[in-house]
Every structure is written in C-alpha cells, then in structure tokens.
TrEMBL record:
GO biological process: transmembrane transport
Transmembrane residue ranges: 56-75, 87-107, 188-208, 242-262
Protein name stated in the entry: Sugar ABC transporter permease
Provenance organism: Streptomyces scopuliridis RB72
Limits of the ABC transmembrane type-1 domain: 50-263
Cellular localization per UniProt: Cell membrane
Family: Belongs to the binding-protein-dependent transport system permease family.
Major localization listed first in the record, in broad terms: membrane
GO cellular component: plasma membrane
Length: 275
C-alpha cells in the first residue's frame, strides 16, 4: 500500500494537477486551466505522434499475438521440455535498450548482417531504421522478438488449464488438430487471451526506450518514429514544458482507460466457458 501511494497514486494525481498549469521545473507552477488541453487539440505533432503510436501498436499486437499463440500451441502439443520453454523466454531477459542497440547493428544499412544477407540474396539494402516507411514496422518487430516468448508462456499456461479429457472426447469424435484448435483451444483460452491482449496493448502504447535507442535522433527520420511517449519526454525534459507534457500524459491515460474497458467488455475477460 505504501509503494502504491508513493510511486503510483501520488505521481498520477500530481500529473493531473500539473496538466492544468504552466510549469518549467525552475519556477512555481502557474494555473492556466484548460490551455494545455486546447494546445494539445490544435497540435499537429501530437496527432502525428498518436497516429505513429497506433501504427506501432497495431503491428506489434497483431504479429506478437499470432506468433505467441502459435508458439504456445506448439509447446503444448509437441514438447514437454522445460529447456525449450526456457529458450523461448530467453529474449525477454534482454533489456529493451540492449535489444535496440543489437538490432541497430543488425539492421544497419551499410554494415548490418541483416542487410548483408539481403545483399547475398540479390536484394537491395534497406534502411530499416532510417526510412519513413520501415522505421515503425522495424521497431515493432524488434519488440515482438523480445516479448513474444513471455506472451507465449502466458498463453501456454492458459492452454495447460484446459482439461485433457475435452481433447480426448474430440479425438473420439474424429476431430483433427486444426479443428480442435478452433473449436476447443481458442474458445476456452479466451479469458487468458483477453487479459494478455489488455496487458500488451497498454505496454505497446508506452513504447519509448527501443525507439529512443534504435532510431536516428528523437523521433527521426522526420518524426516518422516520434511515438507519443517520446514526444511527451521531449516536451518535458527537452523543452521543460512539464504542464503540457502532463496534459498529454493525462490524455494517454484516458485513451488507455477507454481501450481497456472496451477490450474487457468485448472479450468478456471476466468469464470462462469451462463451466
């Protein structure tokens, strides 16, 4: 409770208060009412950052969920090796900063091993992290590589909770693996999958470190990777506009709250079909 009050509730309440002020850290906060929110509504960079963030979230969540689900099913159906399950989790043990630095080298346009492989296959080199078209998909796939094992283990735990006799009854009726997946595994996995989606969506909207490390400049090239968290950070610690940065943070909090509630209701995360 003490940790919750000191490190979560108080910073949240103070951030909401600062969103109604003009504050540069050096002078006392000056109350300005809704000025920061009016500025935010008319700020094209804010809307561009939100668009870039949503693009990242869609790619990251789409690829990560499908890949994690496939890995979880394969682990359940094909192997009981704890070693293989541990290997799947290994990328998650690498920090986002380290992953960003490693892939910055791998995807380097001139010397990166990824582009060297493309060249050996007869393709032109691609500026994965330095072009408007490729930077966000590249960052999304870097984070997919890092987080997919952890997500797969969560889904695997959900699959382990499905009673084995359900599958046995389906086999007696002549159902194959694909049919059992669509008719048994996926429906009964829905509550776990819903919680995993809620967690990954929230985490994806908060992407910062990989973008800050792996892309050229803050949000480059030409704001193509200027995700919302990076813009908030730049406004606060780059331009000392803490009031405006707090307003954008509150807006992000509101967006995530709405998305979480909608996801929870649509996926019926609090219900199960096992009964």
């Amino acid at each position: 409770m003490a940790g919750f009050l000191v490190f979560l509730l108080w910073p949240t309440l103070r951030g909401i208060y600062l969103s109604f002020t003009r504050y540069n850290l050096l002078t006392p906060a000056e109350w300005v009412g809704l000025d920061n929110y009016r500025r935010m509504v008319n700020d094209p960079i804010f809307w561009g950052s939100l668009r870039v963030t949503i693009e990242y979230v869609v790619i990251n969540i789409g690829v990560q969920t499908v890949a994690a689900l496939c890995i979880a099913v394969l682990m359940q159906r094909l192997t009981t090796s704890s070693l293989l399950r541990g290997i799947v989790l290994t990328p998650y043990l690498v920090s986002n900063v380290v992953a960003g630095v490693v892939f910055l080298w791998i995807l380097d346009t001139q010397l990166g091993i990824g582009n060297e492989i493309l060249g050996a296959l007869g393709f032109d080199h691609v500026a994965f992290l330095a072009s408007n078209e490729w930077v966000i998909p590249s960052v999304a796939l870097i984070n997919v590589w890092r987080h997919v094992g952890y997500t797969a283990l969560l889904l695997f735990a959900g699959l382990q909770a499905i009673p084995g006799d359900v599958y046995e009854a389906a086999r007696v009726d002549g159902a194959g693996e694909l049919r059992m997946f669509w008719r048994i595994s996926l429906p009964l996995l829905r509550p776990v999958l819903a919680v995993v989606l809620i967690m990954t969506v929230i985490g994806s909207f908060q992407v910062f470190d990989t973008v800050a490390v792996a892309t050229p400049g803050p949000g480059g090239p030409a704001n193509a990777s200027n995700v919302l968290q990076l813009y908030i950070y730049g406004s606060a610690f780059g331009r000392f506009q803490f009031g405006y940065a707090s307003a954008m943070s509150v807006a992000l909090l509101a967006v995530l709250s709405v998305i979480t509630i909608v996801q929870y209701r649509l996926t019926r995360a609090g219900e199960t079909d096992l009964g």
